[in-house]
Amino acid sequence: MQLQYHIGKISWTLADKVLYVVYGFVYLIQISLLGTEDLALFGFLIAFNTWIFVISDSFALQSIIQYGFIPENRSKVNLYAAILHIAIVGGLSLIVYMLGSVFSAVLSEPRFMEITPYLPLLSLFMLPRTYALKLMLRDHKIYKIFISNFVFFGVMVFEILNYKFSQSSISLNEAIIIYLKGTAASSVVAMLLSLKELRFSLSGNIRIKQIVNFSLPFTFTNAINTIPKYLDIVILKLFFPLDQIGVYSAAKSLFKFFEEGMNGVNGLVYPASVRNVTEENAAGLKSIVSKAVSFTLVGFIILSTILTFGLADFLIGFLMKSKFIDASVYFKIMLIASLFLPFNILYFVITASGKHFDLMKIVSVSFIVAVISFIIVGLIGNPFLMPFGYVAFYMSFSILAFNYVNRSGIVELRFRDLFRSVNDSLKFISKFRKS
Predict the structure, then answer these.
(1) Contact 393, 254 (CB under 8 A)
(2) Residue 136: which residues within 8 A CB-CB, separation 6 or more?
(3) What is the radius of gyration, based on Cα positions, of the chain?
C-alpha cells in the first residue's frame, strides 16, 4: 500500500478519532454533573444498547462489507441486511424492555425500570445511523462517516456544555435526552448522505443461507467477547450497590480513551493482515503485526506510567466532583489492562487467517476467566477490586492468543519483538539526524 494514495482516508480517519477524544473530555463534564446512581443507570442503558448493536452488526451489517462489493448482489444484500438489522435490534430491545421487571428483581434495583422504556426508542433512533455508516464504510466514504459522527458528538457536546453553564447538575432523564438528540440528528444526516446507496431489490445470486452461515460464528464470538467490556456492570451489580457501580463506570469512561486508540490501530491492521494472509506473505504479516503491537504497547506503557504517578489524580480531581474521587483507584487498576490491550490486535489477525472456531475457543476461555474473576471479587466484597475481572479478561486473551498465533504458525512473535519499536525509533532518529 502506497501511503500517498490513501492520505485522504487516513486524514479523515484521524479526524474522526479526534472527535471521540474531544467528546470524551466533554463527557467527563457530564459525568461530574450526574449523580453516581444516575451515572450507573445511564451506563446500563448505553451498555445494553451497545451490546445489542454489536450482535446485529456481526450478524446483519457485516454482510454489507462481505458481499456488498459485488455489484449484482448489492441491492439484495442491502435488503437482507436491513431486514435482519431491524429484526435483531427491535427484537432484543423489546425483550429487554419486557423483562425489565425481571432484571430489576434479579439485580435488586427498582430504578432499573427507569431506563428500560428508553431502550426501544434509543434503538429505533440508532438503527438508521448504524446502517448508513456501514454503507459508507463499504464504499470507503470516510469523510461521510466523519460528518455523521461530527453531528452525533457535536449535538451532545453543545447540550452538555449548555447544561454545564446553566445549571449545577443533570438528571438521568436529561442525560438520556441528550444522547437521544445526538443519535436522532446523526441518523438523519447519515441517511441523507447515503440516499444514493439505499437501493433494495431481490435480484442477485446471494442467498440468505450464505449470510447466516458466514455471520453466525462472528456473531457468537463477538457476543461473548464484548460481554466483559459492556455487561460487566450487570454481573457486578449482583454484589455491589448502584452508587459504587456509578464510580466504576466513571473509571471505565476514562479507560475508553485507550480502547478508542486500539480501535484506530485495529482498523489499520485488519485490512493489511487480510491482504498479507491472502498473499501468503508471512514476513509482511509479521512486520505489520509486530510493529503495531510493539509501538502500541510501548506507548501505552509510557502513558500508563504517567497516569499512575499523578496525571490520573489531576484529571479526575479537575474534571469530576469529589463524589467520583474513588474513580482514580479503579482507573489505576484498569491501567494494568492497558498493558495487555495491544494484544487485541491478534483477535483481528486470527480473524484474517480464517481460524474462526479457534478464535471462538480463545474468547470463550477468556470470557469464563473474566466471569469467574468478577464473581470472586463480588464474593470478597471489596468494591475497589471490581476492575480485576476486566483485567483478567484482557490478560487471559493476550496469553492465549499470543501462544496460539505462534503455535499455529499464523505469525511468529517472540518476546523481543514486543519492544522492537524502541530499536526502530532509535534507528529512525539516527537516520534523521544524519540526513
Answers:
(1) no
(2) 142, 144, 145, 148, 190, 193, 194
(3) 22
- Identify the pLDDT of residue 432: 56
Four-residue CA torsion sign, 37, 335, 22, 3: negative
For residue 68, the 8-state DSSP code is: T
Q: What is the largest CA-CA distance in the chain?
A: 69
Which bin fits 199, alpha (ψ -120 to 50), beta or left (φ > 0)?
beta
Report the range of poorest mean pLDDT among 47-51, 290-294, 365-369: 290-294
pLDDT, tens digit (0-9, with 9 covering 90-100), for 66-124: 777 778 888 999 999 999 999 999 999 999 999 999 999 999 999 999 999 999 999 99
**Of 177 and 325, the one with more pLDDT:** 177
The residues, ordered by sequence, that sit 6+ positions from 19 with a Cβ below 8 Å of its Cβ are 146, 149, 150, 153
H or E stretch covering 188? helix 172-193
Compute the distance between CA of residue 359 and CA of residue 43 in angstroms, rounded to an integer: 29
Residue 1 has pLDDT above 60, yes or no: no
Dist CA 207 CA 222 (whole Å) = 23
Phi-psi region of 213 (alpha: psi -120 to 50; beta: other; left: phi over 0): alpha
Torsional sign, CA 41, 175, 258, 352: positive
d(Cα 283, Cα 325) in Å, to the nearest integer?
48
Please state the pTM of the whole predicted model: 0.88
Q: Provide DSSP, 226-283.
A: HHHHHSHHHHHHTTS-HHHHHHHHHHHHHHHHHHHHHHHHHHHHHHHHHHHHHTT-HH
Q: Tell me if 142 sits within 8 A of 176, measured CB to CB.
A: no
Using alpha carbons only, give the angle 121, 28, 347 rounded to the nearest 5 degrees.
75
User: Could you tell me how far CA 335 lies from the centroid of its own chain?
Assistant: 17
Residue with cell 493476550: 398
**pLDDT of 3 over the 60 cut:** no
Report d(CA 275, CA 221) in Å as an integer.
22
Domain extents in the chain: 1-230, 231-435
DSSP calls for 327-346: HHHHHHHHHHHHTTGGGGHH
Which residues, including other chains, have CB under 8 Å from residue 151's CB and lie 6 or more apart?
182, 185, 186, 189
One-letter amino acid at 94 equals L
CA angle, 27 then 293 then 296, to 5°:
40
Query: Measured on CA atoms in the order 165, 166, 171, 172, is the torsion positive or negative?
Result: negative
